[in-house]
Amino acid sequence: MGFSIGFVLGCCEVLEYAMYVATMNVTLSKLVVVRWPSVQPFQPWTWVVANGFSLSLLTVGDKVFWKFNLVLAMMLVVQVLVYCLGSAPFADMKAYATAAAPSTTTAFAWFKQFPVSSWFYVGIEAINTLCNEVDDPKNSIPRGQVACLATMVVTGVSIFLTAISCPPGLADLKTSLAVFNGGYTHFFGLSLTDATMLSIPACFACIPGFLLCMANIMSSMAESKLIPYALHRRSATFGTPVRAVVVSILLSLGLSFVVHHIPNADTTMYNLSLSFGTLAYVSQCIGYIFLHRRYKTMKRTFHSPFGVPGAVVAITIFAASFVSLVSLQLDSARANVCFVTTLAVLTLYYHVYAKRRQTISEDERKILFFVHVGTYVDANHNEAKRQHGRPPRGVLKVFYMITSKVMSLTHKTTQQESTTIQEHPRGKQATPHASPLETDLPPDVRHD
User: Which residues cross the membrane (predicted)?
Assistant: First the structure.
């Protein structure tokens, strides 16, 4: 899709996570205020404390951060099990999942609420940004995403069915601050204020994870000099991207003040974050289809269980969500203005400032080299098939011509943009990447 579109999509993903963190900050402060009303005037300090603790975790990083997340994740899974199983004896779907108003059961109302369900799965795609944090990411990252998706499907459906079967019921659930309260108040015999406290860990758990994903994306862009290179510097003691983490925290705190002080800003930011997210999700699916079709012969350690058809279905779902977000939501007009303005500013920034300073990082150089190797191998493979196989006919011939043309244009666009990249902000024009080292080659393609 080219460097410019990649830069814009990367920034969209950063903004998406920043808005999620801002939303969680404000929600966390509201949960604290329910238990301690005297804290109402000092809500921003709860954001500072939560993000300060996250900063300390992310600065140390490594085993401390991941062990903390492991303990927190196990605690939250147990909490969900206790909520669902403990609420089962007194759950009454007939009493609490009351019939909805006719205006909410139409196809229009369904399509309007369609994007809301994506909140259950926010963050799964962010696991891609943790390749530098794990061993053997080609194996562990995709399998972790599949396991995470399966876990979210089971827990999401269980929580939904349990929540609508407990007080306050389906009618009031949408405006409830803590959906677990209905089960906790009956199962544990707690007051509403005390039950709200049990939802705080789940609210906080999102913050450090999203901050780390933001920091990794920003650090990668800084290494390519798309944004100030200083953000790429890591902690001399712990080796963590502490500068990028600090900038991520400042960005999310700034958005938290916007949500806190501007009426209905939370709705606008929610719709805006989902809009940015759908762009990132669709681009990932398109990238998967492109790589799957263009580099069929390259060895892969993981194969998607759904393949290209699954990616096409995902694109359809995300595209439908995007249409609903930009046209049917209550605050669509204001969100659309912010959305278009943001994309315009990012595009202008890239072409005016970043494009002349952009360089190819070491990781990108290796990736691009393997892409070129894959292109060469795949081209030879396709040529052999065309010479010895039966050529496509009829509809297949038309489809082959169209898709080949699209991929050719995409490849040419990437090559043209890469030739404008410079080795240094004030240096001469350089080639897209330096000559690969022998050690960069996989063992099966090294020269004898």
Answer: 64-85, 146-164, 198-219, 240-262, 268-291, 303-327, 333-352
